[in-house]
Every structure is written in C-alpha cells, then in structure tokens.
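LOG
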Amino acid sequence: MATGATDNKRPAAASERADERRSQIVAAARELYERNGLSRTSVQDITNEVGVARSLFYHYFPDKDAVTSAVLDDMIDDYIEALTYWNAERQVGHVNDALASVVKLLRVGLFESNSFHTALATAENAALYLEFVNRVAHHTAIYIIDTTVQDYGKLHEVRIEHLYETFYVLILGVIGYLRNHPDADDAVIADVIAQTLHMDRF
C-alpha cells in the first residue's frame, strides 16, 4: 500500500520538476530578450543563463521560435494579471474613471520600453508582432466579456451585438493606433472606446 502511494507521487514530482525547468528556460529567454533584444539572443545564450545543456533546451522546445512563443504567452499572462487587478480596483458605475485607467494600463502593458518590445515593433519581426497583438486581443476580449461587461450590464444596457468580435477588432485598432500615434491623447482614446461600444458614461 505504501509502495503504491510512493510510486504515484514520483510521476507527479517529476512533472512538477519538468514544469519548473521549462518555466526557468522561458523566464531566462524573456529576460535576455528584454535586456539584449530578440535577434541578439541565441539558444546558447538562453542555456548559459539557465545553466543547462542545449540538449535539455531541445527536450522542451524544438527551436528558438517555440520558446519565443512561450515568452509571448508569459507576457500576455502578466498583462491579463494587471487587467484583473484593474477590474478588481475599479469602482462600479464610474465608467469614465475605468476608461481612463484602462487606456493607461494598455499603454504600460503593451508599450513598455525594453529591447524585446522594440524588437517586436521592427519590420523584421512583423509576423511575430502580429501574432502577439492577436493573442492580446483574443485573451483581453474574453476576459473583459466574462467580467467587466457582466458588471456593466447590471447597471446599463449593453447595446452591441457580436461582443467578442467587437472587442477583438476594437483592441487591435487601439493597439495599432497607439503604436503609430504614441502621443495620442488618452481622453480621445477613451472617447473612441466608449463610442464604439455605445457606452453610457454618465
């Protein structure tokens, strides 16, 4: 009986160690990307940072593109965590304040000044950047619909159809506009969001 219980624990422990090692590789890649940039970071640099053999890297990731994709997921997780905090802190019924603060959050979360964000914005990495913003739009739209929209609907009429599609397109549009117009007034962006979603602001 005791032996069976011990045997059951071994696969779970091994799985936890594997998850931890994979997370360490992703964290190292992200740190190097943010410090040195995407093109100036090699698989060897990542394995040196973690202190593992290249063969172990390839046990978890087939190539650098795969670990880069995992880094994007990690960045999006951080953004959704920040969005969760914003959602918990906003005051119900204070639509204008919520709009102003979410625009600021978008700027900070998606346009941080580091080598990786700079590299993502170059023509060389256009496909990777597009993948990144598409993932952001997808996860943000789902989160907002499942939380903030539900709260808003308790006090106001939700006057848009195709919720997911509307939020997805809106998020992509705002990201693209801010990327090309970094000095845009936050109040204007908030107005665009409110008008697109037909929100009651007062």
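LOG (cont.) second protein
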Amino acid sequence: MERRIIEAKAAPAVRQVVVDEASDGQRLDNFLLRLLKGVPKTHVYRVIRSGEVRVNKGRASADTRLATGDELRVPPVRVAERRADAAPPPAREFPLLYEDDHLLAIAKPAGVAVHGGSGVSFGVIEQLRQARPQARFLELVHRLDKETSGVLLLAKKRSALTALQDQFRARDTAKIYLALVQGAWPKSLKVIDQPLHKTQDAAGERHVRVVSPAHEQGRRSITLIRKADPHGPFTLLEIGLKTGRTHQIRVHLAHAGHPIVGDPKYGDFALNRELARGPQRFARMFLHAAELAFDHPADGQRITLRAPLPAECATLLAAS
C-alpha cells in the first residue's frame, strides 16, 4: 500500500517590515496589498481597521502615507501559494513619451490598471517589468485610475523615485487633464472648491462624495477649469488641480451637474450605454492626463511631457 507523508505547514507569524525608499509616500493599503499578494483584499482592509496592523507601534488608517524607515507590524495572514502553472504577466511595452537613465514616461491606455490588485492580476508595472527583465529598478512615481489615459511617470532609480515623489507631495508638479462632460459648462464656473470624503465598502471599493465644509472628515479639494470648449451636447474641459484627491475631478464635475462622458462610477449610465452602442462605439471614460510638468531629479531642468489625445476620444470629439 502506498504511504503518503503529509507535512504540516508552519503557521504564519507576525512580520516586522521596514519601509524602504521605493515605498516612501505610498498608502498603507496599497503597500500591504502588494506585500501580501494572495491575501483577499477584504481581509487586508479588515486587519487595518481592527488595528492589527501597526505603523511605528501605533494604529493607522488605510490612507496613511508611509515614509522611509517606518516600522510596520503585519499580523499573521496566510498568503495563497502561487500555482506552479500560473502564467506570468504578459510582457508589454507602452507608447513611449520620454526615457533616460533616471526616468520612463509612457502614454497609458484607458482600461489598463497601473498595478495589480483589487481583482486585477497585473497592470502596467508588472507588464513593463516582464518586458524589461534587465531593469534593476522600476517603480511607479504616481498613479492614474484604470479608466484614465495619459502621461504616467516611472522611476528607474531609487533616488529619482524619492525626488519625484517629494515634488508630487509638495505640489511642485503641474498637471493638465482633458475631460469631455455632459451639457454646456457655465462660463462663470472656473474654480470648484468643495471638500471630499472617501469611504470604502467591505470589498475595498472606494466611494467619494462632496461633503459640507463642516464635515470633520472632509478634505479640502480644489479643481481649476482652465478652458471650456463646446462640442455639441458636450463640453471639452481643460482642467488643472490644486489638490490631488482620489476621484477628485470625476466627483467635482458630477456634483456640478456635468459628469464625465463614459464615467462608470459617477456618470450618466444611460448616456454611457447609448454612446457605447452608437456609431462611434465609445466605451471608455473621457478623462485624459494630457500634460505633466516636473523638475528632472538629476539636473533640475523643467520637463513638460504631453500625451496625445487617444484616437477614440478624437473621433468622438470630431463627431460632436
């Protein structure tokens, strides 16, 4: 009779993790989702809310920003083992906007997440690493929503990552977005200064809404409307940001009564369906990170990167 030997697996233990430079400025939830690949997202948020995760021996919220040298206590969690036959992320390069020894900038397409997590197996960063196995270091400097296209900046050195993230936190960068919204935008509305409050449901899904200035958890959020061009039943807005809150542009514009065309969370769902089934087959959100300006981390020279408007967006504009 064949004998089978079953070895008991060691129970997971508490982990002490020190934040390195590559993760400086990252949100606690995103850091843990990457560290604990295979752990359900709902469980990650549960251990944060319960206080089992500690940052420098204190409780922390999901949106806590980590700094180099922070010490994390990560409770025992069982990470799902990667199947031996699981396919690696597909290698993929993206349209290149700029590259040198320090930086890489691409034009991210809509519909592609910047990194894996939240039910997404892989994103831009995993595909680029697979396409560039010789790269010793490659990290996202900032993030764009999955549905947003445009300029995405990555660092090829830790020193570049740290310097650029410092600029983003200090608001020393300049961003311009293009958004096509429903209806005629009022010419007098050039600044939206309304606090936003972000919540997450049990599945970790983010929901953002405008709240009263008196709301104790509201965060001041300022969106600038630089230009508004009518396009038939729509208006094309050129947008700048004074703050960079989660879903800020999308929520501010929807609250003003002019949701972004194609927005699957805050938009006009009937209109979105109509456009997706119409002659243009427009089935994405019309929000595009068109321009990003920053100081080069090596020589301090001001660099401005521009991503052309995707073909499907240009086609819809021409037809409007």
